[in-house]
């Protein structure tokens, strides 16, 4: 009986071990199922976040493209408007010249014609200075190749005038400290 009892106990222990292993496997399967569900949820959530980020990126690119196009259009309109303002400022000068040309043939007094021409010239110079345009002073200054364009060199009348500008053939102008046209000068050597 002892052997039967021992054998029964062994079988009972084996059964318990088998049940314990089966319980552990069931628990492992449940745990794996939970992990798989968690992974699927995480993947799904990450896919949604990726789609949202992609959509935001597309919208941002579209907004930037619209901004770039709008600023280009505004710059073009601004340059057109700026040119229009300058031309509107010149129109009164054109009117003055037309009036002067109408009366020049009928004028008996040459001094009056000179005065009228000088008035128109002064008005034009004032308009240019209002726009930021200024003539470059040249005669008597040291020659600077960055500012002046030498047309020719002639012998200097004295030692002090060597390397200096003696005459201006064509005036130069600056617009807000940027050279628009370089003056053409004669330099003493």
Explain what this protein looks like in three dimensions.
The chain is an alpha+beta fold and 189 residues long. It is built from two helices and six strands, in the order ααββββββ. The strands form two sheets. The protein has a three-stranded antiparallel sheet with strand order 1-4-5. A three-stranded mixed sheet has the order 2-6-3, with no helix packed on it. Helix 1 packs antiparallel against helix 2. The chain starts with a helix and ends with a strand. The mean pLDDT is 86.
Tags for this model:
Nucleotide Exchange Factor Grpe, Chain A, domain 2; three-stranded antiparallel beta sheet; alpha+beta; rod-shaped; 189 residues; 6 strands
Q: What's the Cα radius of gyration?
A: 47 Å
SSE string = HHEEEEEE
Strand content: 5-15%
What is the name of the CATH architecture of one domain?
Roll
Mean pLDDT: 86
Count the beta strands.
Answer: 6
* CATH top-level class of one domain: Mainly Beta
Morphology call: rod-shaped
By CATH, the topology of one domain is: Nucleotide Exchange Factor Grpe, Chain A, domain 2
Low-confidence stretches: none
The strands making up the biggest β-sheet line up spatially as 1-4-5
Total number of helices:
2
How many angstroms separate the termini? Answer: 140 Å
Q: Sheet with the most strands?
A: 3 strands, antiparallel
Please state the structural category. alpha+beta
State the fourth-level CATH superfamily of one domain. Answer: Head domain of nucleotide exchange factor GrpE
Helix content: 55-70%
């Amino acid at each position: 009986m002892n052997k039967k009892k021992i054998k029964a106990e062994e079988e009972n222990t084996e059964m318990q071990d088998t049940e314990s292993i089966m319980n552990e496997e069931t628990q492992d399967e449940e745990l794996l199922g939970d992990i798989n569900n968690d992974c699927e949820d995480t993947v799904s959530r990450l896919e949604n976040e990726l789609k949202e980020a992609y959509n935001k990126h597309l919208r941002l690119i579209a907004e930037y493209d619209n901004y770039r196009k709008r600023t280009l259009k505004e710059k073009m309109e601004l340059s057109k408007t700026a040119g229009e303002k300058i031309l509107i400022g010149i129109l009164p000068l054109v009117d003055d010249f037309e009036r002067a040309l109408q009366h020049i043939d009928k004028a008996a007094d040459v001094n009056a014609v000179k005065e009228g021409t000088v008035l128109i010239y002064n008005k034009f110079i004032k308009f240019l200075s209002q726009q930021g345009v200024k003539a470059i002073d040249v005669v008597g200054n040291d020659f600077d190749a960055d500012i002046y364009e030498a047309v020719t060199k002639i012998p200097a009348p004295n030692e002090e005038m060597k390397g200096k500008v003696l005459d201006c053939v064509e005036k130069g102008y600056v617009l807000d400290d940027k050279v628009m046209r370089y003056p053409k000068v004669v330099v003493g050597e």
